Protein: Glycosyltransferase family 4 protein
Organism: Viridibacillus soli
Amino acid sequence: MSKPKILILTQNFHPEIGSHANRINNIFQLLQMEGYEVSVLTTEPSYPNKHLYEDRKFWDNSSLNNSSNIHRVHVKNRKYAFSMLNRLIYYIEISLKMLFYVLFDKQKYDAVFVTSPAIFTAFVGVIAKFRYKAKFVLDIRDLWPESLKGVGVFNNNFIIKFFSILEVYLYRKANHIVINSVGFLDYIVKKAKVDSNKIIFIPNAAREYELNPVNKNHEQFRVIYTGNIGLAQDVNFLKKLVHNLAKNHIRITIVGYGQKKNELLSFIKENNLQNVTIKNPTTRNECLKLNARHDVGVLALNNKDVFDTVLPGKLIDYMSSGLPVVAAVSGYSRQLIEKNKTGFVSENRDADEIVEYILMLKNNPKLREETANNSSNLIRDHFLWEKNIKKLTSLFEEDFRFAEAAPLNNKVDRDITL
């Protein structure tokens, strides 16, 4: 029998960098490989800025460049990064154009898979559910609006209350909720009073072909930090870290972007820190190769409660590259790292403690190798897309009865610290 026809609504998609786009790229491709007819409704690439994608190296996947099943809405370019109001207007414009597409689309879909944030795109998913008479699968990558409060840039109680009401509405209207961190489970169940059985855990992951770390027999011990340098990452911690690494003659490579990047670069220049190598954002493939040419990956999040629930994409990327991780985090990420011995954590976000862990790994190659192997093994056992996509296909098979399958167990393992 034929399989259900699926529409994916997402703001982030190829060729954009970052874990958000990478997540949806893999879901789209692997569902197609499983025999599903899948379409994507998305925007023109703009994260972290649209000019980045004038470089054709980012358009490095021919199957995603020319697919007739990928539909993009044009959004007026706005400099919204430093203005929450303009950012909200930007999100609303995207959602309205997606809404018009859905309302006038002649296609028929059996399921609508919507990824949030942004929350307005998720609301378009609710309308698409009724427009297509389809199942509504809501993919939660970050808790929103909690993450707004977490970065401390938007605390208007009236607006936050409005968004919270909309958030609960979305959870209740969804036929299924997919979460990329177990830390989201209790929050969603408590907030929306939904049955935990309709929530499934599908984390960010790696592809099997990405698990090819470069031989680390290089001359100089090196640390790497990749990804966003924004309001969630605690730039003051990163400043102190690079300064302390310089004192200990340890080199660090930073491949970053975000609102606080220039502040960090100014600090490095003002203090004449010669141990830091700055690289511009690059493709995922190149970033994974660069990771593997280093010895330790650094992860940092600020100490707001909402970040205790997250599982950062860069943590998965470091471990996929066979790196030990040193992290200034708490909550679920800390549990995952410590239980599986894939690195070391400073829950207090203490840069001095992080440097001590880095020195310990530098001076103990055997420990470094054991920790790196633990990282690789954890990815192979629990964080491969080729395995985890089966959770999503089982969900569709159960819903639509297009294939004989064992009864689906949607329950999230509450002790899945792996």
About this structure: The chain has 15 helices and 13 strands. The two ends are 36 Å apart (CA to CA).
